[in-house]
Design brief:
heterotrimer, A mainly alpha (123), B mainly alpha (379), C mainly alpha (175), A: 123 residues, mainly alpha, 0% strand, B: mainly alpha, two-stranded antiparallel sheet, 4 strands, 64% helix, globular
């Protein structure tokens, strides 16, 4: 795998991006006339109010954790899929297929339970 | 470093090739934006930009110059380092992943063999998926670095959408890997040569007038992959996280000028990766339907007489074939954007988790069952 | 210096520097992003050891899923108070000095034990490592099937536990 090539092109793109940003700053000019209204963030014209006790919904956390779990299960399917034909020609096809079916059954049960318990409802 | 060539000459050529592929990606963005603006205009029964240059082709160059002239502006509460780092980081995953996609038959000149792609990765598809999943960091850095609640919520929703559809994307590819038994993209393309043939259940069948492309074996997988790719690059109908009427402009609300253009280069880069992968998995990659690369090489030998000429002709012909398929998919991306209305966010998440994931699972199980049955039972 | 050695030193330096930055930077979001960079560096180190599939998996799962979770959750909170909490004070200074000492001790210990194990060479040359994915899948699905299925059950338990945790009292999804 061309690791040196990947590192080289990453460094090249990073340098390219930084040069572009400096070019934009040089040509366009940095913020000269800064007024209070210009430096504020966009809020449709109203001044920003910061509430102290905002509760952040837990659904982002839930989505991310469930994504990790199902991603790991999908990762397990990759070496199985790559070698499935080799296993079949080697004679262990049924064994490998059934074991993956059991794993998928657990996966599907988890998915079904999680859908049924409304864990991922976005209102 | 070793697979970037053995002699100094090869290493230099390969490194320059990666730079060329990156510049090709950056250069394709103005063309795509022109296509999008004129194409959308024709869909909406109006003229697009047609003043600057012939057919409005120079419009994007004028836009780029205009963007360069904009003031470089960082809002008050923003985190300066992340605010500047996010657009630069937007270019990196898209470019690195695109370079692993084979665009043509390798060019053999004398002793050295030059691949027509940035570099070849032997675990191609796992590498591409891993690098595309780093795209979530761009959005998070941009959203949080802007220091604004609109941007932050837009970034959270966009990254939640991206990670949800990454599941369907990864799972729809398992069917393709089952079919071809390899992660390597070049080998997948080579297995799609020749006429459509199905080996199993004890007999072989050939359909001579259809090519052996993946779409005939994995239609459901192709549809799921394509739809998930829309969500991955935040294109309509999945672009609620940056939709104009909902969250101003989502995670790039506070960006202006050239930094915003760099986000768009990243988004079009992801679109190009999705189109490239669609042609590689399901439409034969750089292969020309009806002709194997050997046939094209023989044709080149007949026309040019020398081996070098035939090799160059071979690579160029296949590169053109790849580009035609690639352009068709990019056009489909653009066309769908201006045709379908946008999904609401909860509909979007429901679609990803409750519809696409079960369908992709069913596709995998049925594909595996058919492959297993085809090798064990004789009809 | 050969290309392989240069890559190894560069990547090790990258991993060490980002690892140290995770602990030494005060802004928690920066720490999480440096941890993501560490994961990417470790994935590259896997490539130099010819474990290509594992490198891809490290990228997909660690750098692309787990660290995205960390960064998402850290960005949602306003952590100014926590940023200031552990930077000053006598007890904090003592803890910092003690942890530097422990780290130095671990590094010296690792180097001396590593020198005594120099004669044991691992099998990692190109020809034998060409098909690591095949060997991995053989080990996983033929020899360790029970572990593989148990892992599925473990993931299910994690899913149920997470949903139950998200419904605890006082949160937004409380029952």
């Amino acid at each position: 795998m061309p690791l040196g090539g990947v590192i080289f092109i990453t460094a090249f793109i990073a340098v390219f991006g930084v040069i572009l940003i400096f070019l934009a700053r040089a040509i366009g000019g940095m913020a000269k006339r800064s007024s209070k209204a210009k430096m504020e963030i966009y809020e449709c014209g109203i001044e920003e109010i910061e509430k102290k006790d905002t509760k952040i919904s837990v659904k982002f956390y839930l989505t991310a954790i469930l994504f990790i779990l199902f991603d790991i299960e999908i990762i397990f399917m990759y070496p199985w899929a790559v070698n499935f034909r080799n296993f079949i020609s080697g004679g262990a096809g049924a064994y490998v297929f059934v074991s993956m079916l059991v794993f998928l059954a657990i996966f599907i049960f988890g998915l079904w339970w999680e859908i049924k318990s409304k864990a991922l409802e976005w209102d | 470093m070793s697979s970037m060539g053995t002699t100094g000459f090869e290493i230099t050529v390969n490194l320059i090739k990666t730079v060329l592929v990156f510049l090709m990606m950056v250069q394709a963005v103005p063309i795509l934006v022109w296509l999008e603006r004129r194409g959308s205009a024709f869909i909406q029964n109006r003229f697009g930009p047609n003043r600057v240059g012939p057919l409005g082709l120079v419009q994007l160059l004028a836009d780029a110059v205009k963007f360069l002239n904009k003031e470089d502006f960082v809002p008050d509460k923003a985190n300066r380092f992340l605010f500047y780092a996010a657009p630069v980081f937007a270019l990196i995953p898209a470019a690195i992943a695109y370079m692993a996609i084979p665009m043509s038959v390798p060019l053999i000149i004398g002793d050295s063999k030059f691949l027509i792609q940035g570099y070849e990765v032997n675990v191609g598809i796992v590498f591409i998926l891993g690098i595309s999943s780093l795209a979530a960091y761009t959005i998070l850095m941009a959203g949080w670095g802007s220091g604004s609640k609109f941007s932050l919520m837009g970034a959270m929703r966009a990254s939640a959408q991206i990670i949800s559809y990454e599941l369907a994307l990864g799972l729809s590819i398992v069917g393709v890997i089952l079919m071809y038994g390899t992660f390597n993209l070049t080998e997948m393309i080579q297995q799609q040569q020749g006429p459509l043939h199905f080996t199993g259940f004890g007999y072989e069948s050939y359909i001579p007038w259809l090519p052996n492309w993946g779409i005939f074996f994995q239609p459901v997988g192709a549809i799921i992959f394509f739809a998930a790719a829309f969500a991955e690059s935040n294109r309509l109908p999945f672009d609620l996280a940056e939709g104009e009427a909902e969250l101003v402009a989502g995670f790039h609300t506070e960006y202006g000028g050239f930094k915003m253009l760099m986000f768009f280069i990243g988004e079009y880069g992801h679109m190009m990766i999705a189109s490239g992968l669609m042609t590689t998995f399901f439409f034969g990659g750089y292969l020309i339907p009806g002709l194997t690369p050997n046939d094209v090489y023989q044709m080149g030998l007949n026309w040019f007489g020398s081996e070098t000429g035939a090799n160059i002709f071979n690579s160029v012909a296949h590169f053109l074939s790849y580009n035609v398929k690639f352009a068709i998919f990019l056009w489909i991306f653009i066309h769908v954007r201006w045709t379908l209305p946008r999904f609401r966010y909860d509909q979007l998440m429901d679609l990803g988790w409750k519809t696409m994931l079960p369908w992709a699972l069913a596709n995998t199980i049925i594909t595996a069952a058919i492959i297993f049955a085809a090798n064990y039972f004789v009809l | 210096m050969s290309a392989d050695a240069f890559l190894f030193w560069f990547l090790s330096l990258l991993v060490l520097v980002s690892g140290l930055s995770v602990v030494l930077l005060t802004n928690p979001v920066y720490s999480a992003l440096c941890l993501a960079m560490t994961m990417v560096g470790v994935s590259a180190l896997f490539v130099t050891l010819n474990a290509y599939f594992l490198a891809g998996v490290q990228l997909i799962v660690y750098a692309g899923a787990v660290m995205v979770l960390f960064v998402m959750v850290l960005m949602l909170f306003d952590l100014k108070h926590e940023t200031q909490a552990f930077t000053r004070g006598k007890i904090t200074g003592a803890i910092k000095i003690a942890s530097v000492g422990i780290l130095a001790g671990l590094v010296v210990g690792a180097i001396t034990i590593g020198k005594s194990l120099e004669n044991i060479k691992a099998v990692a040359d190109n020809a034998q490592a060409a098909d690591t994915t095949k060997i991995l899948s053989e080990n996983l699905f033929l020899k360790n099937v029970f572990g593989f299925e148990a892992l599925g059950v473990l993931l299910l338990v994690i899913a149920v536990g997470t949903v139950a945790l998200s419904r605890s009292k006082g949160g937004t999804h409380a029952k």
